[in-house]
Design goal:
Elements (H helix, E strand, L loop, with lengths): L5 H24 L1 E2 L5 H4 L9 E7 L6 H6 L2 H17 L3 E9 L8 E3 L15 H7 L6 H10 L10 E5 L2 E9 L6 E7 L2 E2 L3 H4 L10 E4 L9 H10 L4 E3 L2 E4 L26 H7 L3 E4 L5 E3 L29
Helix pairs in contact: 4-8
Bound molecules: zinc ion (ZN).
């Protein structure tokens, strides 16, 4: 590559300049969706109570079939359901806006994992501890998409962004019983939260609040609430006595696959509610409307970050015996 002729280098430099300028164009292109009455949606939000700011992006030029499958109206239904669930746990969801606009179609579908940086867990430690040693890393394509979509704002790193995308593919490894042979699995996600317990600080601070939505759950309307849980409680798929795993189907908890919506508390509930209330994405508005934020993560935001004090669960890794 370094031996390219001068004109090709000049061309590449020009192309580089063009790529750099793209985000500004895309940011300007987002407009608030006027048909959605944000003030009415927020009418129950009161100053002084723990609150999370959320923005929603939905591109105007998605493919027609995707719009049928994952309509903006469906996302709004899910958002309203999430408001109820978090309200029961003492947290208000404050909708900043819903925006639409032309998005470069190269970002409609993303493979989000950096494959070179991924490997199976050895199983000597639990998944949260393994993640500290080798956190998930975003693919360049995904990072570029999120930097393009999320508009710069002073509170970027304290805000959650729900971004509709047509396809979001995540990679992980599946091992045989002895843990000798591993298959590389690519999952098409319905929603993906890029949680701190898997990424730590590998996601640039400005875009750490990203959550993608690629499916609409027209039965339980649970996807948004569940994905918000990964970000706000900073836990994986776990519930009471069930330790985290990639996929677990059972009833009861918001953070497992199933119909459950519970955010349990106390040691028995794996401190879900307590962790939610410690989240750096929460603030209380003072009398003048100024946001007084919770403390930020003390380290990089992994599960055992000292922000959580004793609101953590110690558990064994799931080692496959050879
Ligand atoms: Zn999940």
């Amino acid at each position: 590559m370094r031996k390219l002729i001068t004109s090709m280098i000049a061309c590449a430099v020009a192309l580089g300049a063009m790529i750099v300028s793209l985000p500004a164009v895309a940011h300007d292109a987002w407009q608030e969706v006027k048909s959605i009455d944000v003030r009415a949606i927020n009418k129950d939000v009161k100053p002084g109570k723990p609150t999370v700011d959320i923005g929603i992006y939905y591109a105007a030029n998605f493919d027609e079939k995707f719009v049928e499958a994952v309509p903006l109206s469906g996302i709004m239904k899910e958002f309203m359901q999430a408001k109820k669930i978090y309200s029961k746990a003492g947290v208000q969801l404050n909708l900043l806006w819903v925006k639409s606009g032309e998005l470069d179609p190269k970002y409609f579908s993303l493979q989000v994992s950096n494959l070179q940086a991924s490997k199976p867990d050895d199983g000597y430690l639990n998944m949260y501890k393994e993640a500290v040693r080798q956190p998930n890393i975003l693919s360049d394509h995904a990072q570029s998409a999120f930097e393009t979509i999320i508009e710069p704002d002073e509170n970027n790193n304290r805000t959650l962004y729900l971004i509709a995308l047509q396809g979001v593919y995540m990679h992980y490894y599946d091992g045989d019983e002895k843990g000798r042979n591993w298959n590389s699995t690519l999952v098409r996600t319905g929603g993906l939260s890029f949680p701190s317990y898997m990424h730590g600080s590998t996601i640039p601070n400005r875009i750490r609040g990203v959550i993608t939505l690629s499916r609409y759950d027209d039965k339980n309307h649970k996807i948004i609430a569940h994905e918000l849980g990964h970000k706000l409680m900073n836990v994986s798929h776990e519930y009471k006595s069930v330790s985290p795993q990639h996929e677990i189907r059972m009833n009861g908890g918001l953070m497992v696959y199933g119909t459950g919506l519970e955010i349990p508390s106390g040691a028995e509930g794996r401190w879900h509610k307590e962790r939610l209330h410690l989240s750096p994405y929460l603030y209380r508005a003072d009398k003048n409307g100024n946001r007084v934020w919770n403390e930020d993560y003390k380290e990089e935001g992994f599960y055992y970050d000292s922000l959580y004090g004793d609101k953590v669960v110690q558990f064994e890794g799931q080692r496959k015996k050879r």
